[in-house]
Amino acid sequence: MGKGGQDEGRKPGSDPLGFASIFPAWARSVEECEAEFKASAEHGLRSDDVVSMRRVYGWNELEKHSGPSIWQLVLEQFNDTLVRILLVAAVVSFVLAWYDGDEGGEMGITAFVEPLVIFLILIVNAIVGVWQENNAEKALEALKEIQSEHATVKRDGEWIHNIPAKELVPGDIVQLRVGDKVPADMRVLHLISSTLRVEQGSLTGENASVNKTNQRVEAEDTDIQGKECMVFAGTTVVNGSCVCLVTHIGMHTEIGKIHSQIHEASQEDDDTPLKKKLNEFGEALTLIIGVICALVWLINVKYFFTWEYVNGWPGNFKFSFEKCTYYFEIAVALAVAAIPEGLPAVITTCLALGTRKMAQKNALVRKLPSVETLGCTTVICSDKTGTLTTNQMSAVKLVAIGRWPDAVREFKVDGTTYDPHDGKIHDFPVGNLDANLKMIAKIAAVCNDASVAHSGQQFVANGMSTEAALKVLVEKMGVPEAAQGLPSDEILRCCDWWNKTAQRVATLEFDRTRKSMGVIVKSEAGSNSLLVKGAVENLLERSTFVQLLDGSVVLLNESTKALILDQLRGMSTNALRCLGFAYKDELGEFDTYDGPHHPAHKLLLDPSNYSSIESGLIFVGLVGLRDPPRAEVHRAIEDCRAAGIRVMVITGDNKETAEAICRDIGVFRSSEDITMKSYTGKEFMALTDKKSVLRQKGGLLFSRAEPKHKQEIVRLLKEDGEVVAMTGDGVNDAPALKLADIGIAMGITGTEVAKEASDMVLADDNFSTIVAAVGEGRSIYNNMKAFIRYMISSNIGEVASIFLTSALGIPEGLIPVQLLWVNLVTDGPPATALGFNPPDNDVMKKPPRRSDDSLITPWILFRYMVIGLYVGVATVGIFIIWYTQGSFMGINLTGDGHTLVTYSQLSNWGQCSTWSNFKVSPFSAGDRTFSFDTNPCDYFQAGKIKATTLSLSVLVAIEMFNSLNALSEDGSLLSMPPWVNPWLLIAMSVSFGLHFLILYVPFLAQVFGIVPLSVNEWLLVIAVAFPVVLIDEVLKFVGRCMNASRLGSRSGKSKDE
Length: 1057
What we know:
Elements: H1 19-22, H2 30-37, H3 47-57, H4 70-76, H5 81-101, H6 106-110, H7 113-135, H8 138-145, E1 150-155, E2 158-164, E3 173-176, E4 185-191, E5 197-199, H9 201-204, E6 210-211, E7 230-231, E8 236-239, E9 242-248, H10 254-267, H11 273-304, E10 305-310, E11 313-319, H12 321-338, H13 343-360, E12 363-365, H14 369-374, E13 379-382, E14 394-401, E15 408-412, H15 435-446, E16 451-455, E17 458-462, H16 465-477, H17 493-501, E18 502-511, E19 516-523, E20 528-534, H18 536-541, E21 543-547, E22 553-555, H19 558-573, E23 577-584, H20 601-604, H21 610-613, E24 617-626, H22 633-642, E25 646-650, H23 655-665, E26 678-680, H24 681-686, H25 690-694, E27 700-703, H26 707-719, E28 724-728, H27 734-739, E29 742-746, H28 752-757, E30 760-762, H29 767-808, H30 816-826, H31 828-833, H32 858-884, E31 887-888, E32 891-892, H33 903-907, E33 923-925, E34 928-930, H34 945-965, H35 982-1000, H36 1002-1008, H37 1015-1025, H38 1027-1056
Parallel strand pairs: 13-25, 13-28, 21-24, 25-27, 26-27, 28-29, 29-30
Antiparallel strand pairs: 1-2, 1-3, 3-9, 4-7, 4-9, 5-6, 5-8, 10-11, 12-30, 14-15, 14-24, 16-17, 18-19, 19-20, 20-23, 21-22, 23-24, 31-32, 33-34
Membrane topology: Multi-pass membrane protein
Transmembrane segments: 81-99, 111-131, 284-305, 325-353, 861-883, 983-1003, 1018-1038
Domain Cation-transporting P-type ATPase N-terminal: 24-98
């Protein structure tokens, strides 16, 4: 992004004059720029020129990308395989219900419950999906909000105020003042004030505002930070005023390019790993359902399509449409049984609960699927400033001059925040300052424009962070004995005291040429002096003397200078930012300076005079500052290493500082050779084989990185199959945040654009919060696997039940509306409760799962096929037991007076009308009595209501016991008892309660086609359902043995190697 117009080639026909595309205004003089754009600072553009320019360049606004229509978004929600299966099942169910409804009656109305419920699920799913898609483009809207709305423009020789910013064209002359938002990318023509500072951190990630000049830059190929004579759209003027020439507008500006990059990144949104797995599962399910439905029809074709052989050839074909429809309904019931209708709702609920857990850990999740994606993160690309560090500059070392010119004193300074009481200065004479330390404190306090305030639970800096750190240092130094007894409730009481003793009368603003700032102050005695702070080397060059411990001043000789430079080198090696302090008392014509009316004031209007004013200085000392690492980051990096997650630091800071911080926090080992692991953004982009660098084990560092470098790194990592989490806070980070699998924005320092482009926002801007969120994501994924396995095993059981019913030729045991109730309502609470399973202790000690890892392994599938087969046998078995057995396992079942039949009669019930002397006694169920005097054969249809109720109750009970099995993939219930997750026990109670509700409320019992059960019948249900726990315990034991054997063989191989 940082190459200005060079990065964007000319679009055919869109830029015939070529100004906005290829002219490097930053590398051209003011005169060349005016000539190129045919404009002058004195007269501006003529009105007719503006009109012709607008025809070429259009309006100064960001494009409005037309997103998909609401109907396109709705249709996109049906791309999901499971959703399509549900839709087909609902349509077929509706057609069958309509067909049944022609016969009238209550059962016709009941038949509509199933398709209506499925349609309701699909509608809710579509609404949620559309809502999430609609939020996707909000980053682009937030980007538009940072644009300026008005500008002051010179046209036809006159200044026009408050002209709409969108009317600007290249060549317009614009005036900027303090507080103005820059309306377009512009070349500074001349400064009205002595200095100009612009806050462009949203584009570059820099903490401090930057100085601007009208001097051209030598290199055409430079980044945004290097374009010191350019101001960019969306940035803010924080000091000074100037006149500028518009060079780029609309989509050609730096912010316009970011807009394009965000839009492009949003088009590349990939499905989350879980969604991919569920789609794969849905496709497999479609195939399985198709095969089983066809099999069911083939097995039962003899019941609705018959023929006789006449002379060796089939003839006399008979087709029963009624029976054909009946078996088609069974096939539909089988499809309903196979589809886990409740799965989308349970997944959404589990992810929503996960977001609440993460919010408690300061990770605010904006997009629900991100919770699951976090769990398989393999690479974290982190910014340095504010994420790995505190973003609060603090002094760590103070160097003062000793008693003799060849001696210096070193003081170690503690503290990592702007709290003056956070830490102390070691071996420091607090309250007994010598003259040299007093002067250092005075310069640090008075030659300083920052302040520190108390906000909530923390101290915050107002102004430049380095200056705020100096003020905190002054507070730790204390004040001289003469000033003891200052009010203790003021945050900067010592600084305030120094400012009262030395009143500032003029400021020599910092500039990049002399790299210093100076203030002229008037003492209480009325004499003036100059206090200066700045780059140590520059101050030493302009210093003639040095102040000793007792306040005496001696000539600055080469040996003293070498001693100070040696200290500077040592501090710079440790990535400290060093500032020197100097002063002078003899100011010449400024000795009596007292304000703008003084004759010498005209010299202060020209910054080129500042170096000569700040000459002949007396050097007093220096301080080393840094943005310290967060205390908890080192442990978080170690956790990442243990969890198999690689950490890559991508920062705009310089290489040496970033390397020192990375060693400090553990990204690199202290003695590690990082020649091939630390690159600047430009160095990395120049490599021919970038992927081999990114594939290295351990941490990597990319310094002086621009947004385009971040995007390239994310793109290459994703191409290699990595799941990438990327942090960012500025507008310039938004495209990379959008492109990453997990975009993480900073909650405190982050811009609205970055937050809108992200998937997650860190409320505390802390790297360790990301690591905690990854751990939570892994735990949530494990729990999701538990309830997905649970629901799928339950569905396998339902399919087995219907298949066995069809294969054995017995009456249909479970109707679609009952299966739907079980899948949606009864299974829902336990499945959701499994999302509360406690995390494994070693969740962050395992390598990240691959995004293509199977959701259901062959062994797990085999286990649940066994469990499913048992569910089928149990539900069909209890149906057969009720019809054929008077007692089972000592439980008497004849209390209701129902008639027993043989298994042969039950399996050939369709031929009942041909049986002679077949009679059926009435039986009772609750307060209802069922008699079959008029049509005994109806005993196998209307009379199956009790057997159906038993089958449904066994299915519910087995699934409740099966939820206990899902507490752990391989752990026994003896080692992980049910009470480790009390929510599961509550959920089981809720599900049983709901089942009792439909059993014992007459209206609901009629809707679901069931009747109340007696105590003996409930005993039978429990006896048939409980063995599912014992079967799975045996299978888990086999699984543990297989895992132990596999681990043993691996360790044996590693020993051999």
